[in-house]
Amino acid sequence: MRYILLLLVLITTPLSAQFNWTEAEIPVRDGKSLAADFYSTDSTKAKPVILVQTPYNKNLYRLASQLPPEAVTTFPLDEAFHYVILDWRGFYGSRDAGVAGYDRGLDGYDAVEWIAAQPWCNGKVATWGPSALGAIQFQTARHHPPHLVCAVPLVKDFKVKYSDYYYGGEYRKSHVEALQKLGFFVTSLILDHPTNDFFVKVVESGSDYPEEFNVPMLVVGGWFDHYPDDVLRAFEDIRTRSSAEVRDQHKLIFGPWTHSGVDKAEQGELEYPTGANVVNFASLQFFHYHLLNAENSWQLKPTVRYFQLGKDRWMEGDSWTGVVAKTSPKSFYLRNSGVLSTNSIGGPDFPPVTFRYDPRDPSPTYGGSYFDPFNKDAAVGPYDQREVVESRNDAVIFSTEPLEQDLDVTGPISIELFVSSDRKDTDFGVRLCDVYPDGRSMLLTQGIRRMRFRDGFTPQDTSLITPGEVYKVTVELQNLAVTFKAGHQIRVIITGSNYPHFDVNPNTAAPLYQSPDSLVAINSIYMAPQYASRLVLPVPQASGVEHQNNINASSLQAYITPNLLQDRATLSLSLPTRSNIQIALFDLSGHQVSGSWTYQLEAGEQEIPLDLPTLSAGIYFLRTIVGEKVTSLPLVVE
């Protein structure tokens, strides 16, 4: 028997290998029907059902190894549940049901209620899915289907807004064009509204409805996703504005993931072993708790769990805003020598730094939150910027000296620049990197700002600049939880473009996206005393992220190492103080399947060999109690 540390079941093999599937036609209120597949290990038993609504072709789930990255890469399979995979109205098997402008949330309602009425359903239905499959869950939940019990939307916000398609006023070119290829809309609709105008605000207002959510939600986001800030904001809205009966039941998991890389260890050119296989295990615990009334301690899980990059640790909090509230801004000032310095004193010996931006040869996108599901070789996530970006002559680079001690950063990041250009409009793009002692310059996040939008994004805010005049412009980056380790450097790369993640600015005064020509711009960054260009990082007020989040709740780190040759496993612990440890093994329903072990351990790194009982194949969790801290670790038996 093998014990394997695994929090999810990867669908790299056909679902049909474990589950039998049958086709179904689900009738909806306008007289049409939607194509679906019903998956079950035993359809004679009434079980809770997990509904997945997809625009990416339900048939791919029959042979899941062929799933495209924009669809889904992991799936919370468990024989305790049945599953229904449904094609969206207007897509694939439901193509003939397409009706322009129809509210697909109503289809979700109708599907939930049809499922609940089937003899193989016990009357309880949940929803699950990432990206577009997450958006449809919000749209379904707002209509209150009576038999919907809970939802797990991953890497998606419920609100449609200007910043979905424009970042700092710059068109998210590759992202929007990919959405058009996927069949969601045409790019002309987005390009017709390059400002945050009345039409865009009406759309945003109509999609802002967290008050209408009345079921518990497990929300998931990633630091290398397209919209980490939007998922964080969405969860805050759900926690504070949803139905009062469920506000305290929502939970957030935020990991080191790209959009299509949730639950994977490998992200870009880095690996985060403790970030792997987290969400599916949590999803199954969530489903067992809400759908099967399992006593599995789900309610004791922290409201917010987030991954601290650099330290590669999971942290906890009651809310993300509460975590950020315990930080203070720390400034790193740009110097023309290429240094980022905490010394704010400038002088006349700090003349501006000038660089050339040619729209016909833009600085290339390499990694980050880039989105192109049609290019399997696209670099996404943390990538070394030295060869592709930093080696070019259109990049200006600023770095700290190697840090003498760890620096924790938790919250929104920005850079304030004082700039000028010889053109009436241009862009300033920023990339933030963690430079390793071996020289690797690993991208963490990126942003951009179009100068005509320096004062805001409404039509009234926009104005061209005067060539040669100095302006202050803020480039908003994103929220991050990252620790720059001792010996590492913090680096900022400034360019005039980041293509094709963002469209190029032609450097003309022409109306937006209507200029057939382009001009080369000579752009300058100022650093004299009156022009304090600086990077602003949110740094915890106390020493260390763990302390500011309650050391008992955050500093315990634990993981299981499997031994494939014996019926044994090793529990590794990192303890802040001498502690009493209680350990027991449970199944997903919360039933204890082993005796309890008790240990008294000294502070530091500790390992406990575990003699495990003979178990049938399935997913279990090891409950570890240290003081008031309860940690659940997954264990899969094959």
The helical percent reads 10-25%
Task: Enumerate how many helices there are, as a single number.
Answer: 11
Alpha carbon gap, first and last residue: 7 Å
Overall, the morphology is globular
- Overall mean pLDDT score? 88
Major beta sheet summary: 7 strands, antiparallel
* Weakly predicted, low-confidence segments: 1-17, 65-73, 543-555
CATH architecture of the largest domain, by name, is 3-Layer(aba) Sandwich
Q: What portion of the residues fall into strands of 2 or more residues?
A: 35-45%
Number of domain modules: 3
Tally of DSSP β-strands: 35
Structural category is alpha+beta
Q: Rg, please?
A: 26 Å
Would you tell me which CATH topology of the largest domain applies?
A: Rossmann fold
Overall CATH class of the largest domain: Alpha Beta
Describe what this molecule looks like in 3D:
The chain has eleven helices and 35 strands. By secondary structure, it is of the alpha+beta class. The protein has three domains: 232 residues, Rossmann fold (3-Layer(aba) Sandwich), CATH 3.40.50; 214 residues, Galactose-binding domain-like (Jelly Rolls, Sandwich), CATH 2.60.120.260; 82 residues, Immunoglobulin-like (Sandwich), CATH 2.60.40. α1 crosses α2. The longest helix is centred in the middle third of the chain and has 14 residues. The N and C termini lie close together (7 Å).
